[in-house]
């Protein structure tokens, strides 16, 4: 994995913490987003732990650049905030989740392992918090929301139900219980939704469901 943070003490702490795990290898470190693309070319990490706020090229720009690549690594955003606009933008760009800088070491290690395995690092509670924050997302959201209904039209009825449940922040087991299907079937539907809509992870499913107004429909009396 690759560590990206402008604070050398933070990088040293993360390197010590993550380097102690037998199944995690630190292949490189960067102090600014401007260094990331070249480092990824040279080291080919599976996961990048990316600070958001850096002096030259910030983590948001670096995330958007990396996720535009065919061989994009998974990205975990490192931040001091739970759900500010910058975290939301990073998740829309395809980051697999975020961890707070004051997260206990064992949880950061677990988060890296989950992302490496293809699972997003967002709990259902955090997903719900992000959806609430997205409701007040200004600016480019208008164009995004006008396009969203056409995108979700590609889903069949069952996939649409699963997308709404993901948007509500339900875990796979909760979706399975609510929609009377097995957890394996839920995972299959999620995979199909990702493929049909060309999305990176279930966080983006939740955001698209929000943008398309699907969550408002489920909240209507």
Automatic annotation (TrEMBL):
PROSITE patterns named in the record: HTH_LUXR_1, HTH_LUXR_2, RESPONSE_REGULATORY
One Pfam family here: Response_reg
InterPro entries associated with the record: CheY-like_superfamily, NreC/VraR/RcsB-like_REC, Sig_transdc_resp-reg_C-effctor, Sig_transdc_resp-reg_receiver, Tscrpt_reg_LuxR_C, WalR-like
Name of this protein: Response regulator transcription factor
Lineage: Bacteria, Bacillati, Actinomycetota, Actinomycetes, Kitasatosporales
SUPFAM superfamilies: C-terminal effector domain of the bipartite response regulators, CheY-like
PANTHER family tied to this protein: TRANSCRIPTIONAL REGULATORY PROTEIN NARL-RELATED, TWO-COMPONENT RESPONSE REGULATOR
Annotated ranges, domain Response regulatory: 1-116
Residues annotated with 4-aspartylphosphate modification: 51
Residue ranges of every copy of the HTH luxR-type domain listed in the record: 148-213
CDD domains for this protein: LuxR_C_like (cd06170), REC_NarL-like (cd17535)
Alphabetized UniProt keyword annotations: DNA-binding, Phosphoprotein, Transcription, Transcription regulation
């Amino acid at each position: 994995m690759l560590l990206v943070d402008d604070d050398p003490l933070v990088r040293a702490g993360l390197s010590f913490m993550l380097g102690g795990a037998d199944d995690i290898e630190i292949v490189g470190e960067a102090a600014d987003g401007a260094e990331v693309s070249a480092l990824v070319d040279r080291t080919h990490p599976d996961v990048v732990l990316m600070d958001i706020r850096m002096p030259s090229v910030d983590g948001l720009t670096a995330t958007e650049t990396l996720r535009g690549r065919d061989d994009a690594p998974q990205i975990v955003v490192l931040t001091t905030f739970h759900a500010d606009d910058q975290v939301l933008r990073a998740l829309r760009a395809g980051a697999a989740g975020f961890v707070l800088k004051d997260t206990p070491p064992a949880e950061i290690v677990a988060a890296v392992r989950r992302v490496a395995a293809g699972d997003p690092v967002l709990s259902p509670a955090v997903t719900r918090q992000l959806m609430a924050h997205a409701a007040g997302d200004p600016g480019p959201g208008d164009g995004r929301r006008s396009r969203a209904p056409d995108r979700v039209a590609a889903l069949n009825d069952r996939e649409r139900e699963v997308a709404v449940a993901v948007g509500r922040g339900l875990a796979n087991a909760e979706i399975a219980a609510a929609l009377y299907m097995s957890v394996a079937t839920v995972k299959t539907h999620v995979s199909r939704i990702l493929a049909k809509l060309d999305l990176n992870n279930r966080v983006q499913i939740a955001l698209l469901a929000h943008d398309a107004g699907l969550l408002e429909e489920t909240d209507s009396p």
